[in-house]
Target: Tagatose-6-phosphate kinase
Amino acid sequence: MIYTITTNPSIDYIMRFDKFSDGATIRAYEDEKYPGGKGIMASKILKNLGEDPINLGFVGGFIGEYIASGVRDLGLKEKFVRIADNSRINVKLKYDHETEINAKGPNISKEEVEEFFTSLKEISGDDIIVISGSLPYSLDEDFYKKVIEATGAKFTIDIADKRVLDYLKYKPLLIKPNKEELGKIFETEITDENMVKYAKKLNQLGAQNVIVSLGAEGSIFVDDNIALRAKPIKGKLVNSVGSGDSMVGGFVYGLVNAYDKTDAYKLAAACGSATAFSPDIAERTMINNILREIEVEEIGN
Model:
């Protein structure tokens, strides 16, 4: 079974308009509301590919119930812990740029955290947990470590700073920094010449597989044996939210369904591009169409 954890889910409120002007009244020509959060995004791509993941995390108040019902409306399973405080709303502004305004999230009590850990008892070492995203301010910074230790499950982890190094001793199935995050992890500038070297350092420290996303320049994949680069796919960027989570979901789907790593990486690259070219998480038809275009090549150290 695949589980995804979203500790700080949101309503992602997307507003599209032509031009931003500071201090002005701006009228959106289109707006959308989605249940948001990196774990939920990964669940959506896994569902579209044919898996049936279970969403875990915390939701609260009328915002939380909107999120939970939205997840269920998508045909996804959820076992969120209900909390007293309200979940958050994140605002995504789409014009000639993309601007995101993310709220800090709810207060979660000690009793609510204990209820969450009780819910983990059904998870075993044969399961996979997709761990990603920021923690609400009220949770201990070691929360994810406690999840890993409590379950013994295989896991992926996608967090945006050098704290990811603390998780490599647990041998994650996958980590997926982008180029900027890889540089922050090792406090250096990442270039085409040293990118594989630093990605492989993550392997050496314990990560079984590493994907470094490069935005419009594609991505690279490394494990202990190979280094690959997926060439970028041409298309119109519609929505970058969830593209990285789609890559994670695609790779996990490949592993669960016995793809070799090259094919799992190709699927991950296709999922990431397809979501970037879609208003929401990509549907299977678009993923399959883009997958036919994905080209990967071996790259050196």
